[in-house]
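User: I'm writing a short methods note and want a consistent example. For SWIM-type domain-containing protein, I'll paste the sequence; you return only the structure tokens, no commentary, since I'll be parsing the reply automatically.
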Amino acid sequence: MMGSLPMNVEQGLKFLAEEMRTRLQPDSEEDAKLVQKGMLLYRQGLVNQLKFESDQVYATVQDVTPVKVRLDLTFFDTSDCGCPNFGICRHRLAVFFAAYAKMSSVSEWIEQWREPFKTKTSATNLGVQRAKDLLKTSGKLEQSYNRWIEAFDESFQTILTPNKIPNPYVLNELFHVYRRRLRASAPLETEWKLLYELIATVFSFQKIIQLTQELEHPDASRYFTPLLDELIEDAEEFIQKLGIQTMPFAFDEFLASMRHDSSQLLENANTFPVERLMLYRLLWTHLFKKKNWREEELANIAGSTEFELIIAEIHQYFLLNRDNEAMEKVKQLGPTSMPFLHYWLELLSAKRDWSRIKPYVEQFIDFSKVHLKDYRSDQQRRHFARAVIQSILPYCREMNQNDLYERALNYLLPYSYAAYDTFLFEAGDFERWCALQAYIGVDLAWIGKERISVLAASSPETLVVLYHQSIQQQVDLKNRQSYREAVRQLKKLRTLYKKLKRLPEWDEFFELLVDKTKRLRAFQEECKRGKLIHD
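Assistant:
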């Protein structure tokens, strides 16, 4: 029976009800069985001792054996259940239903949860039927760009938007019915089929963008982003396959029309700007290659103040080899252009176009210092630093640009430590390598035996410095184990001083150390045990 609950409990139950609705998928057989089992336990009256405390719900579920359950209404994942299952189980669901029944109808919740699945199934079946009807009346299409576009549009409207904009959760199924319908009318010749598929993909991308603007759904990105990503991947595949075909002259008219229609990609790009730019870049880099086309496009978009069009303008400068103008615009945009700058750098690197790449690398490095701060976690910063280093390394290595490479490593510290460490050690710059270890606070134990051997042979002075630093660190830890390690390292340091014929310096250092640590009785004892101090 429904009754009054404290406001915070009601709010918590509403929040949990929505979370359950999102996490449990009605079209998943496993989830459907889970809900059914939880409902059965609840309806059989097997949820006992139900009580509410703040944002927690406690109960015992009388299953084969009694199971105690605690639901956290705010953070469900921290809830507990006596059964061995992790996450949502039938017992947690049974307690949720029992608690939810105190404020609302469980049957209505179940019905609302199932509704998207019913709608999705119904919409998909209806979409399939419409696609079949279209196929009966159309068949293969004549080789005409305008006729193709008309057919695509007719299919889109008939299958996806016959009377109204579809609910977002049925969009994926309807969209794939629509794409299967388009493929059924594709030309038979390989090259024409690829062109047809590409034009259909770009058209579909623009129609989906248009649909998102009309829908204005708060979760639009959740439903539409996977579709747009899929279309971009497909477009890339079709363009790559077209690139290895001999394109007939008849394609020119189609590409010209496609170029004209694609100019709308970046208009009012307030929704999905990244995806739009990705497709724009793809088309203009690998498909629309005529110089006069690129110059016309540049003339049309130059001077815009919209971010997406500025990026497009830079891209056209880049494609036309007008690097000075491209870099001028990049500098005006600042570090916000980093992802796009990375793309241009990667293109030049892939082509090994070392004569053009330097200004892009220099700007990329300078922006990286600022952009690094935009990441909140150390893991993200390490990932970013690694991406920067991998991007600039081919050019720096090929053209012997060690100064430029080291500038990047400096900017990205401490997240570039591993690369910087390797760079300095392999260059034999042991003095600066040692300074890097001190800056990072590297323990001597982390330095491998191979490197210790190299240092002992090539730069024993560096090894002396490292031992001094490490010994002090061990002494500062002030425990018996660290004192033993300090004594072990002191013996190695003494051997090094002896090899360098600097024993007087050793004597002076050790005398000062013993005096400074005279209150550390355990350390003094370890020194005696190691025969560094004699009674």
